[in-house]
Specification:
Elements: H1 2-7, H2 12-27, E1 39-40, E2 48-49, H3 60-65, H4 71-82
Antiparallel strand pairs: 1-2
Length: 96
């Protein structure tokens, strides 16, 4: 459905399409592509992580084209989550 939204010009659909694409490989224990998913590791005492995540696969320019924050912004969010803080509304690239 998100790809139909993109085809119809909905910028908001871009992020959900990227997030949906990330969820599938995450469920089958493969690296996510855009880094949209944050979760607590499987072991007791684990902290928030995005791993597995192939950070070299998609450049920030494409990531931003899909309304996904740049990796530097993702790192800030991850740091806040690991510190037990809820990040403010996640920054989206302009036009998203």
């Amino acid at each position: 459905m998100a790809t139909v939204g993109i085809a119809k010009g909905s910028a908001k659909s871009s992020w959900i399409a990227a997030a949906t694409l990330d969820r599938y490989p995450q469920k089958i224990k493969q690296p996510q592509i855009y880094g949209t998913q944050y979760h607590i590791g499987p072991n007791q005492g684990d902290k928030f992580t995005q791993d597995p995540y192939n950070r070299q696969l998609i450049p920030d320019s494409l990531r931003m084209g899909m309304c996904v924050p740049a990796q530097a912004e993702q790192q800030k969010v991850l740091g806040l989550l690991r510190a037990g803080k809820e990040p403010a509304e996640r920054k989206r690239p302009a036009g998203c």
